[in-house]
Amino acid sequence: MSLPANLQTDEASPDWLNKGDNAWQLTAATLVGMQSVPGLVILYGSIVKKKWAVNSAFMALYAFAAVLVCWVGWGYQMSFGKNFIDFMGRPDVSLDEKFLLERTFVGYLPNATMIYFQFVFAAITLILIAGALLGRMNFHAWMLFVPLWLTFSYTIGAYSMWCPGGWLAKKGIIDYSGGYVIHLSSGVAGFTAAFWVSKLTIITNFRILLGAGLLWMGWTGFNGGDPYTVSVDASLAVLNTHVCTATSLLTWLFLDILFFGKPSVIGATQGMITGLVCITPAAGVVQGWAAIIMGIMSGSIPWYTMMVLHKKFWLLKQVDDTMAVFHTHAVAGSLGGILTGLFANPKLCRLFYLVDDWQHYIGFFYGLQSGRPAAGFKQLGIQLLGIVFVIGVNVVVTSLICLLIRLVVPLRLADEELQIGDDAIHGEEAYALWGDGEKFESRINSVYGAEDYHTGPKGEVQMA
């Protein structure tokens, strides 16, 4: 096939373009996209009762589409464009042909590739928030929530930490692939939104494993794509990701067996997710032994907060967080950020950030080892500052968005809609081999349901 007469070869493949990097970046972005569609669509549709399967899956699908339109309309430029203020870029459209074909701000890629790659990260963040709201939030309210939260919360975190002009990026915060920007923010925002919406009944079946598997394997692109090049650091990030995740899953599983006597599918899935989340801010900047330690801690600390502390703290008991995003994303994301501040290897950091900076990007333990404890302590302080910033922004902005939406449409589904489910909201019902939970009375005897569920008058499983 010959090129058109008005298109020169060097224009289609300029000298700065690395075809291998570009091919991997597009592949990695697609893997991340598949974590959302179909990964989380399947997971959400599987973990709720039959009457909520359509609504839950549709919340994820809608968010994926809506975020893309907002992203090219203004979101990308607010996250990675020209400086507007220290924590936000200037809103602008990202559809100009000349701009799309130009080299991006980092790597040997065109802007079009970067926009696509960063879009799937933004989309999965909103879909993770949906996990805290399944079966309770009014779908019309969700339609408003997605563009508002993307605009006034996600872009602030992304610009502050990932854009070279962001204030936390200048301080040297380490967030390799979104432990803060994606997971901590979605965990805090999801929990905050659930506070304003809050209850739902959930059940589970084997389809959870299919959605969980897609989520796990898709993380290869999630962390492996962030160096923006086919590098040794990308390979390390991928391996560390899977090592930490496997260790976390096994740790959570062993704790379930040790304390409750039963291996739990939901428990193993939660352990998998906390491992993925915990390693994300550190994936390519820590050594393999550190990834194993992070896996042990991500499989035990969030387990403790979910299984023990959750039942003791009044606020946690009042908020019905469907997918436990507070524990799996906020707690695990914060844990990953702190451990990054302890274990970040300065040599690996220089491979990732491509800077010869000995004053930043050094874990506390390496600072002690090299005789620079002040630098290591400073890095740990920056990581803690990032956690405080993300929590503060998301509590305030998410609350304001929910209160604003409540003036327009109800945040919570009406009682009649809560009773009927998908048919009342969408006029559709999902196909299921079983009924609406009545075949799962044994659910109330499981590790994750014994104290939280009871059987209703019609045999359905209900929240206690």
Automatic annotation (TrEMBL):
Q: What is this protein called?
A: Uncharacterized protein
Superkingdom classification of source = Eukaryota
Look up and give the organism this protein is from. Pistacia integerrima
